[in-house]
Amino acid sequence: MYNFHIADDHPLFRNAILGVIKSNYPDSVVSQSISLESTIQELEKNDETDLLLLDLHMPGCKDLFGLIMVREKFPSIPVAIISAVEEPNTISRAMGHGACGYIPKSCSPQKIQSAIQSMLEGNHWVPDEFTHTLTPVANEERDLAAKIATLTPQQYRVLCLLREGWLNKQIGFEMGVTEATVKAHITAIFRKLGISNRTQAVIMMKDF
After folding, report:
1. pLDDT one-digit tens code per residue, 73-84
2. Which end of the chain is flanked by fewer CB atoms within 10 Å, N or C?
């Protein structure tokens, strides 16, 4: 019997994955979540998950933060990315940051099942057309990912808005918090990343 967790905020795709799992692994246990926060909460309840199917862009998972955070907190849980994004660079980075597989949402149910089975057997899986396009992640990016993994989801959201040039007042309005809270987040971000100003944050994050 396998334990699966589906982390995706789109109910139609969650149901599609659930259908594939239940058709091929009828005795399996499947839990679900719709955000990074709820995913972490569910994984904390069951650290014996055999495979996490993680949407790349559900709430809290901007960029690769969700994958990086989950890999840091639950290194023993295999993580397969499920995403509508089919860019070779994104797939390479996801695999380089610890994913055991990358399943495009355009895959047929049969291919999804084949991918899941391969990963349950301990293999890495990407679609055949991408197997020869994977490139390694630079050491600098790995080092930055390790620092980013220490941020909270809120702090990472603030960092992304800083990267986009938002002012503290704008960030506070967007997130529904006070400017004082934003400043506290920024102070913590700078400390964790080992930087001292916004310019350094923008430069550090420009290619992440």
Report:
1. 999 999 999 999
2. N
